[in-house]
Design brief:
Number of helices: 2
Shape: globular
Largest sheet: 12 strands, antiparallel, barrel
Radius of gyration: 20 Å
CATH topology: Porin
CATH superfamily: monomeric porin ompg
Order of helices and strands: HEEEHEEEEEEEEEEEE
Distance between the termini: 27 Å
CATH class: Mainly Beta
Strand content: over 45%
Number of domains: 1
Structural class: mainly beta
Number of strands: 15
């Protein structure tokens, strides 16, 4: 947590008058599936269809707080995911020439006991929502475990934290937005390096390469927008469930935004991917679909705060709830 506070001061301390574009309604939430057996791979978060302008630099601090509480048993498999995972990511980007953008992502990952259990149970009770078995599970527990054919292949029950897998990225602007109702298209690629400890689920031990097309279309002078992306992730053999790991995964994003005020944009998006593991009937190791809702607030001319909440549409394929925060500045 101290590292998060340090990064926050770095971002806020760098605030100075700068010219930047108005709040973009077509910028998606930069989040993805935070299932600890998925987030260790190089699945990239959703990204804008517009790269940074020449010479512009972006700095971003993301925080994803995921609460998990699920237990599945089928045939010879048992998967228990009970705890919380915190992922803090420092992102640096820079516009190169008229069409390119280069970036670096440095994640810091923490696996912790379920401190939010009582809050989430109370929230479900207040709104008369189903608990999904959370109220019958032990409170304040960390237990990420997978057993197959009597063999315990994943077993993490001690709190841990550390550097995750670094990611390098490159964006290429194919269609640059122009006019009152512009559309944009960008080709983005990234490579994830095995810098995190796979035994503590801070990384996968694999080198992963992702390619995706990101597109957007705005309407009514930028007050409404549709955005989306589709791509593929290709992975070398990792050290987490290597006998079941897939080496290619498809993924995508679809979302919409509405800007009721010049400094406020409300957004909704759906993110999904195909399975990261084969030979399993468990939802936690299968394809995923999750819904994110929230908004973006322009704090200054160049500083934007994103806040969103994500839930699993395909139950147990992603965390029960993820709180996503991002502080973005361009200069």
């Amino acid at each position: 947590m101290s590292l998060f506070v340090f990064f926050l001061f770095v971002v806020l301390g760098s605030i100075a008058p700068a010219q930047a574009a108005a709040l973009e309604v077509a910028t998606p939430f930069a989040t993805s599936n935070q299932n600890p057996l998925v987030s260790i791979y190089g699945l990239p978060p959703a990204a804008s269809a517009t790269v940074l302008a020449p010479g512009m630099t972006g700095i971003e601090l993301r925080a994803d707080v995921a609460s998990l509480c699920s237990r599945e048993e089928r045939n010879s498999e048992t998967l228990l995911l009970d705890g919380e995972t915190y992922r803090f990511t420092l992102v640096l980007k820079h516009g190169i020439g008229r069409r390119f953008e280069a970036g670096l992502e440095v994640p810091y990952v923490m696996h912790r006991e379920g401190l939010l259990d009582n809050f989430i149970i109370g929230w479900h009770d207040f709104f008369n929502l189903p608990q999904g078995g959370r109220d019958e599970m032990p409170r304040r527990r960390l237990a990420y475990a997978y057993e197959r054919n009597g063999e315990l292949a994943v077993d993490l029950d001690d709190e841990t934290e550390g550097l995750g897998d670094l990611r390098l990225s490159l964006g290429w602007q194919l269609l640059r937005p122009q006019g009152d109702n512009p559309h944009a298209l960008a080709l983005r690629t990234s490579i994830k390096l095995p810098t995190g400890n796979d035994e503590r689920l801070l990384g996968s031990g694999s080198t992963d390469i992702a390619f995706r097309l990101s597109g957007s279309q705005t309407f009514r002078q930028g007050s409404l927008a549709l955005f989306g992306a589709a791509g593929g992730l290709f992975m070398s053999e990792g050290d987490v469930l290597p006998d079941q790991q897939q080496h290619a995964v498809a993924f995508g994003t679809l979302g919409a935004g509405w800007k009721p005020l010049s400094d406020l944009a409300l957004k909704v998006q759906i993110d999904g991917h195909t399975p990261f593991y084969r030979g399993s009937d468990l939802r936690g190791l299968s394809q995923s679909l999750q819904l994110s809702m929230g908004g973006s607030l322009a704090l200054t001319q160049s500083l934007v705060l994103d806040v969103a909440v994500s839930e699993d549409i395909v139950v147990d394929s992603a965390p029960d709830v993820v709180f996503h925060f991002a502080l973005r500045r361009t200069f």
